[in-house]
Batch of 3 targets.
Target 1
Amino acid sequence: MNSLKQILQNRDTVGLITPAGFINRQKLDIAVRNLQFFGLNAFYYDSVLEKYGYLAGDDKSRLNELHKMYENRNIKAIICVRGGYGTMRLLDKINYDLIKKNPKPMIGYSDITALINAIYKKTKIPGFHGIVGSGKFTEYTSENFKKVFFETTDKLNIDISENHKKDAYVINSGKVSGKLVGGNLSLIMSTIGTPFEISFKNKIVFLEDIAEAPYKIDRMLTQLISAGKFKHVKGIIFGRFAGCEPEAEEKENSFILKEIILDRIKPLKISAVYGFSFGHISNQAIFPVGVKAYFNTDNFSISMKRKDINQFFN
């Protein structure tokens, strides 16, 4: 008999935070409605609408908002309203003991990459790389949100969206298993050499980015290779790199994204694919960071044991 509970229940309260870039009232209202669609209640502090330059309030305010959400016993999960920039500034100030004593799903992507991976590194509590609160909950995204947070099947299966299959491709074929880590490539690079550097050893690494010129993707992948970060990796899952193709006037003097990825990754002989449904796109899967996954490159399927996720939040 399956004794696992849902991570979230109908009428649970979910906290909305802005640990990075600022938002307006419209984005906040969208986030509230998105949660209501799933039968969830939204809660936020006034600080969620603060603005300090390009940040959602100064570091002290954003840190305090984060800590209060973990201290609040009524909050069952936390979702970031948007990304932007700013989470890196908080990592060395976060009270990780507080988080460890009050484990809650932290959900977000883009700049939130730094936060969810740091929380996992310091507490071993999985974070959830996926939609932000003000994002577009398409049918595929909503289905994945329900799968992760509302279902109790023994296995969690994540498949590529139908509309992404046509231009997805296998780089190196294989069936692999390992804990999931990753997120936004630029944010991952920014952790290198810090106490929050992400360990790739024996992991399945997932990567995405947005609006980076092809040579910049080349440079970042080359740095990871030169730093030995891919040396003991089990597999690599590239998401959708939106806006990372050369501009029309630059095509004659540039590589396209696929050429760069094949050139950099194929010789490593690591099981890898490009084009899975995550990134700065409409249809987004949700990946639990720090959870062991099983990945088959040939059918673009990822599976996990539900207990490896839910045990932290039941």
Note: The chain has two domains: 13-135, 155-305.
Target 2
Amino acid sequence: MINAVLKHIQSASQPSVAVKHFGVDGKGFPLLIILYTLYWILNTPIASAATISVLPQGTEVGVGQTSLVELWLDTEGETVNALSFVLAFDPQFVSVESVSTGGSVFSLFPVPPLVLNERGVVELSAGAPGGFAGQGLVANILLRGLRVGTAALSITSSQALKHSPTAEPISLRVLGSSLQVATPETGEIVITSKDHAEESVWYNVPFIRMSWPVRPGASYSYVLSRSPNEEPDEVPDEPTGEIKLSISEDGVFYFHLRECRAGTCGPTVTRRAMKDTTPPERLELAVGAASGVLEGKVFLSFTASDATSGVAHYEVWEEAVGETWERVMSPYVLQDQAHQGVVRVRAYDTAGNYREEILSPLAPEPWYRSEVVFWGILVVGLAALGVTIFVKRRGQAGPAPQANQSSTPPLP
């Protein structure tokens, strides 16, 4: 998988290394051995290690409910430009609903993440053309609980490459996790949301509203958090039954709620809301044509990035071919091969926000290079030349002879 990533990453030129050669004689041979031993000790690369982790470390989800896990990379001082791995899970207990790369530290995904629920694996390959160093998110994976039990989440077949001319492999440590699938407790409070109806769906709503049934004699403590495991305190909050929170930030949020009676609070009930109101950050367009590529036709390539929910799809509108939006993939062969009309491209993220860029038509040819105009001028010119020659020949032949006049004298 990682070879597909390397094909899309341009490596820097390889630096030259100057090596001095020493002469050998009988007396200096031991010294030469010592020098070479020190050289190899000092210059042999030490196998470095980075860590890829599944977070959070151990969490619980109810049967039929969903849980979001994150894959994080810690390069631990190295700079990584390519990563590939397989996440394995037990398909008896969980299934993968979706994989999102929104907000990933990697910007290049040669192929979409591959989900094989029947086999219990997710395959992902990613690249960072400029390299990445530090700690950052690789991808989000949404899992749904199927039956009661413990589903191990482990990373296998992982590989990372250093950002260098030789792209040597980096040793990877992997830290898996587990997901406990449990039966929802009887009588558990059910939290609903009119604006975020599905926990597994991204919405472009600028606020988060949560509702729950209020029981007689009960008070409620709640908190909205980025953490899926945060616990509300035991201090009652107001209002109860429904709360609407205006949030300027985008991302994944968790509403944690506890029901309290006589100063004692019960277990925490959690509902997730995924909010993205920001269009993709950038959309880059390029038009090209090359022999051997797409039969030499003029094509349009485009790429975009989205930091939150991720880019979902692209749409193209061509002025010259009916002015309708069409969902396409890059590269896209222009229907108007002369590119004489405006072309619009939109990049949509998973929440439905989009960014649009306009590609102006190619500059029209000068009037004197037009084939129609050329032949028109040629015909008119030949006609004018023919008329001119005809007139000149008439002039050289002299005036036309006049009719004979009658010799009969006029009558008196």
Note: The chain has three helices and 25 strands.
Target 3
Amino acid sequence: MRAFEDHARDATGYLTGEERLDGWSVAEYVSHVGDNLRQWSERIQAARLTGRPDVAGYDPDALAEARGYAFIPLEVGLWSAGNAAQRWADALAAAIEEGVELQHATRGLQRAEDVVRNNCHDAYHHIWDIRRIAEASASNGRRPLMAEPPNHYLGADPIVQSDHPDVVALGQELRDRHAGDAEFAKAAFNWVRDNIAHAYDAQDHRVTLTASQVLAEGVGLCYAKSNLLTAILRSQGIPAGLCYQRLGDPEEGHVLHGLVAVHLDGAWHRQDPRGNKAGIDAQFSLGNEQLAYVIDERKGERDYPRLYFSAADEVVEALGKATDVLACPLPSDLSAG
């Protein structure tokens, strides 16, 4: 149970928390688990510390309404449930060692071991509910990401140069005009999409990879443009990572395509800054994705679930040794997708 928050984050991926099927939303399920663990921790501690073993039941739906689950952001619910899980684990470990027993109004005698079994079943049953919702969302075009906690996707490296003076200056210029995080992220997306030419569209042979190179040269492939957008977002404290798709078909061949995922409103949202042209209309969105390409799995295309801190090794290897980006062989797959 101590790992509940990690398991819940893995299940929620980049869902907003508002998704639902026929019951609670993703965020409401997470808040319920946190409250249930908290309640049982208090009951156990009451028996341990005051010798009061009697407990009554409660109505989960009434508690959800009273607590306002519908208004608790997913990220807050995950944090709260994670804290509750740690305290629950401490309390129940002590209760098992001490042989604590409760007397439930409807269930009767509840040993500490019974509480552990029931609470774990409840928590991980709701992880299954969340995965069910995620799968339904994926069938409607949303793909859950395998991501670390959001603060992992801050900071700089030699490619995503969020600390480069030119990147920071551009980020600050955009932030000065767009104070809200969502508004700033949209402005940064639009700037990169519209002001940095896609090398293939422009038939520009120059090779760029790092954020500062892309900004200085004003051109890059999808990977390079994504590196710059990620750096701009991070420069202003917004978690952002890199993710990928495989496009094409077996006859013509497959090629890797680069995207950005931004963490806002408690969830990850994929964005495609490659640049628009006839037949492509990628837009910034925190709701339904509007990417440049729609995946066709029948052709071997796919969304890779992993969210990267920096550019994938395959991208760095291909562009790092290239002298002409239009003649450079591009990666067709990820070894650790």
Note: The mean pLDDT is 93.
